[in-house]
Amino acid sequence: MEVRKVAGVLEELGFDCQLLSSGKYVAAKLATLSNGDLAKLKQAFIRHKHPRFLKAFSFRIPYGTGDEYRKHVQQADLAQLTHLVKNLRFLDADKVYLFWKNT
N or C end: fewer C-beta atoms under 10 angstroms in the chain? Predict the structure, then answer.
């Protein structure tokens, strides 16, 4: 799954995946990364694109195109990368569904 592969890159870069839903934590960690590490993270998002990631930079069509997404990720600033990482955390979280029978 694309999301797990990008999460693996984040773990390699020293991120605690339990804290990825915190915008402050993600922004602070991204600010400490070198240009090479930021490039590695951007390449991971480009290589393992998920439809939800495509939507992050799409303004005219519901899910955007791969070429447009690639261009936006390469030019993304720290705030935009923070948004992508927070989306990743949402997608990677375990989902719990409760069903009950109304008797």
Answer: C
